[in-house]
């Protein structure tokens, strides 16, 4: 046990010396961090990272991120790094980005759970941490994309959805993540949601955050993120707030002519176009359309019909012209108009 700290110190300094000045700036305060890195487990983690990753940067990350395995050690480390200011956070962000994938693949479930906490801390620390946020989410997805539907995997997705359901977190994720990654996340969430009802509320919150956070990109988000969440049974409580948010975003702008809305409020017009596009995407499948409308009270169904009635026929045909035909003819639900 007594030899653990010198071993880590030697490993860390040997690895860190060749690395950029930004990362060195963080480690000028290494004496304060050394006691946190003195556990034998940290030494083993660092060695395994060196062997698996084969790179100085990854090994450096392993030495520091190893302390994040235990919340009691992680909190003082993170508080100290925050005290260093933006440069310290930037350095830690780079280390986390480099190490997250290796950590998720190499170590125990404890790491995967703890890295979600790190991801959340980076999000609330500032927009410069986008790359680390993307890396953390990618690590989660790589872990669960193998089809693991165990309680442990479900809980991991639940925590990630919980983080992303806050508007600020969603804005960061939206800017950080490729569209394909967002799509995979929501598909996996929906798949696990059927096995664990507690994900339903978080999935609905995420969908609402998509619509509320960035109107100019919610058309894309409607197709890539909201749609998988609506593969639901009739009466599913998650459907109504999603469609209500879409209708609310678009109905105001669509009541006026496009040119007038554009002149008076470009943002409102953009939100209207996004909601219109999102609704078309959500309702493009006949079975899904019936399911969605079956979950809505008549006033909200009427609002959906109203929004679609403002969509030019040429645009409807891009998604399939029979969408508006079915809805406006009232055949989607007995007695609807």
Automatic annotation (TrEMBL):
Signal peptide: none annotated. Pfam families: Ints3_N. Transmembrane segments: none annotated. Residues 58-227 form the Integrator complex subunit 3 N-terminal domain. One of its GO terms (cellular component) is cytoplasm. InterPro entries: INTS3 (IPR045334), INTS3_N (IPR019333). It comes from the Eukaryota. This is Integrator complex subunit 3 N-terminal domain-containing protein. It comes from Cafeteria roenbergensis. The lineage of its organism: Eukaryota, Sar, Stramenopiles, Bigyra, Opalozoa.
């Amino acid at each position: 046990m007594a030899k653990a700290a010198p071993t880590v110190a030697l490993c860390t300094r040997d690895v860190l010396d060749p690395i950029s000045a930004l990362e060195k700036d963080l480690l000028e305060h290494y004496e304060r961090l050394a006691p946190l890195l003195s556990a034998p487990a940290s030494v083993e983690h660092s060695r395994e990272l060196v062997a698996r990753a084969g790179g100085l940067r990854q090994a450096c990350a392993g030495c520091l991120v190893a302390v994040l395995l235990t919340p009691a050690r992680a909190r003082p480390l993170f508080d100290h790094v925050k005290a260093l200011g933006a440069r310290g956070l930037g350095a830690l962000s780079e280390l986390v980005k480099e190490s997250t994938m290796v950590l998720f693949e190499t170590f125990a479930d404890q790491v995967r759970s703890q890295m979600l906490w790190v991801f959340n801390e980076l999000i609330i620390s500032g927009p410069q941490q986008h790359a680390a946020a993307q890396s953390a989410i990618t690590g989660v997805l790589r872990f669960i994309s193998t089809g693991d539907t165990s309680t442990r995997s479900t809980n991991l997705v639940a925590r990630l959805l919980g983080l992303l359901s806050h508007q600020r977190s969603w804005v960061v994720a939206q800017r950080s993540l490729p569209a394909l990654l967002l799509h995979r996340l929501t598909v996996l969430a929906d798949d696990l949601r059927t096995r664990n009802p507690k994900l339903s509320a978080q999935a609905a919150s995420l969908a609402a955050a998509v619509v509320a956070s960035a109107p100019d990109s919610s058309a894309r988000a409607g197709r890539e993120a909201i749609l998988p969440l609506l593969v639901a049974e009739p009466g599913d409580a998650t459907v109504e707030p999603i469609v209500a948010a879409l209708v609310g975003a678009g109905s105001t702008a669509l009541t006026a002519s496009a040119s007038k809305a554009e002149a008076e409020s470009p943002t409102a017009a953009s939100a209207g176009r996004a909601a219109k596009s999102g609704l078309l995407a959500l309702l493009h499948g006949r079975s899904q359309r019936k399911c969605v409308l079956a979950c809505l009270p008549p006033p909200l169904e009427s609002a959906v019909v109203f929004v679609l009635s403002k969509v030019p026929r040429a645009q409807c045909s891009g998604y399939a012209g029979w969408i508006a035909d079915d809805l406006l003819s009232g055949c989607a639900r007995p007695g609807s108009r």
